[in-house]
Specification:
By secondary structure, the protein is α+β, with helices and mostly antiparallel strands. The chain has helices at 47-56, 75-80, 89-92; strands at residues 20-22, 29-31, 36-43, 66-73. It is elongated and about 65 Å long.
Length: 110
């Protein structure tokens, strides 16, 4: 039977079984090396409340803490939510990581 991917969709190589993690969207248990992982950094408060907090704060140079969270998705849910997309056989051979989006000027461009 032909192989679709070089690593068969996993990153375990010669490690045997891997611990399972729960998908954030479906709750499905997925092997940790197969799960699609995204690291999320967001503010604890929303953008509308930041200016109110700065005005009410006693400290002038206080930076609000951020939430750092690692999301795990199963393949089906990640494709459904368009976190990852299906690629053609030719582009599947490309193993370089996707280009990182940088927001230097503070504006998000899509």
């Amino acid at each position: 039977m032909p192989k679709k991917r070089r690593n068969r969709g996993r990153a375990k190589k010669n490690a045997g079984r891997k611990k399972r993690v729960a998908c954030e969207l479906t709750g499905k248990l997925v092997p940790k090396d197969k799960a699609i992982k995204r690291y999320v950094v967001r503010n604890i408060v929303n953008a509308a409340a930041i200016s109110d907090l700065k005005e009410a704060s006693v400290y002038e140079e206080y930076t609000l803490p951020k939430l750092y969270y690692k999301m795990h998705y199963c393949v089906g849910a990640a494709c459904h939510r368009r976190i990852v997309r299906a690629r053609s056989a030719k582009t599947r051979k490309n193993r370089d990581p996707p280009p990182r989006r940088r927001f230097g000027d503070g504006k998000r461009s899509k």
